[in-house]
């Protein structure tokens, strides 16, 4: 049986242009950066065009200064600087992340050097529209579909929809080579050392990390946790999670067994370590939920809310995919404000053996599938 945890068979080094517009929060740049770093680690050359790279200063220190071999971070504005674009080496792949649109000047500059149909002897780049992650059934139907370009300098070409997902018929999940081995090697000693390095006052108690928006049942959940006889250290990420905790009425946390510790922003590498070092992870959005899966600890997901409540189906599909026990489903419904159920932390945050078992099974299945970057490279090679 082939080793599916390894990247797909060796492929030539390609040059990639990855486009990212930061809408809000950190998921757009977080996912794009992980993809860039993963591609570079596999020997590809990547240019990341982004309209707001500021989060990279803590997420990937040195990235903006060009200290990550294989990745160049470029200002989105420059992607319409036609004279300068003509001086750049031609790329093999374009990735538009999450529906952001490449500047027409960029497309025109490329079409000029390759010919829209590759008639100058160099193929037009494979053009990928990288979509958001969902476990819903329609993802399998839409993954890989072409979308013909009907107008403009790239007329006659196609973009391809590439959907991350949880089944072999989707684009898979980001999982860089060696991740699971590094996770496994993060033992008790490494955990203790990581806490010490980061000035985290761990006294051997249960550790819960908190990365969320403003969960409907945050106050009630923290109150319940604080009433447990066994103590908990809550590690709170900066920004919205910290603000939300600060809004919890102090009386609800009085005489509590919960200790609060506010964290500074961590690099993506250390964010992973946080998830590995915690017994339970409350995560949010797209990237951190995948990292929580790979971390292997029970978790709760605060899904990114959409105006039309489309996230309700998305959450349900995700929990079904993982075969989440009833108690976990109920916790998610209250955490995400979908139902005003009373909060029950048992079965999800505490006494969560069934949830852990379900996640172990799901993770083994996911590990046996090719990761997103391997699949993306394979897809591009087929389309070239
Ligand atoms: O920040 P998010 O809520 O991003 C969201 C979601 O992805 C959502 O689906 C998307 O539509 C919206 O953005 C536009 O959650 P996410 O996706 O987990 O991204 C957070 C990133 O920040 C992730 O890569 C982990 C990283 N991170 C760190 O590197 N260090 C930190 O200290 C923290 C708290 C996060």
Structure explained in plain terms:
The protein is α/β, with parallel strands linked by helices. The chain has 15 helices and 12 strands. The chain has a 7-stranded mixed β-sheet, covered by helices on one side. Strands 10-9-8-11-12 form a 5-stranded parallel β-sheet, sandwiched between helices. Helix 11 links the parallel strand 11 (280-284) and strand 12. The longest helix has 15 residues, at 27-41. 41% of the residues are buried. 2'-deoxy-thymidine-beta-L-rhamnose binds at residues 23-28, 30, 59, 211, 237, 265-268, 271, 284-288, 304.
Distance between the termini: 28 Å
Adjacency order of strands in the biggest sheet: 3-2-1-4-5-7-6
> Low-confidence stretches at least 5 residues in length (pLDDT < 50)?
1-9
Tally of strands? 12
User: Averaged pLDDT, please?
Assistant: 94
Tell me the helix content. Answer: 25-40%
What is bound: which ligands?
Answer: 2'-deoxy-thymidine-beta-L-rhamnose
Topology as a string of helices (H) and strands (E) = EHEHEHEHEHEEHHEHEHEHEHEHHHH
Overall shape = globular
Can you tag this structure with a few keywords?
5-stranded parallel β-sheet; 15% strand; alpha/beta; 15 helices; binds 2'-deoxy-thymidine-beta-L-rhamnose; 384 residues
Secondary-structure blueprint:
Elements: E1 15-20, H1 27-41, E2 45-50, H2 56-59, E3 71-75, H3 82-85, E4 93-97, H4 104-114, E5 126-130, H5 138-142, E6 146-148, E7 158-162, H6 179-185, H7 188-197, E8 206-210, H8 218-226, E9 232-236, H9 240-246, E10 258-262, H10 268-277, E11 280-284, H11 287-295, E12 299-302, H12 310-321, H13 326-335, H14 353-367, H15 372-383
Parallel strand pairs: 1-2, 1-4, 2-3, 4-5, 5-7, 8-9, 8-11, 9-10, 11-12
Antiparallel strand pairs: 6-7
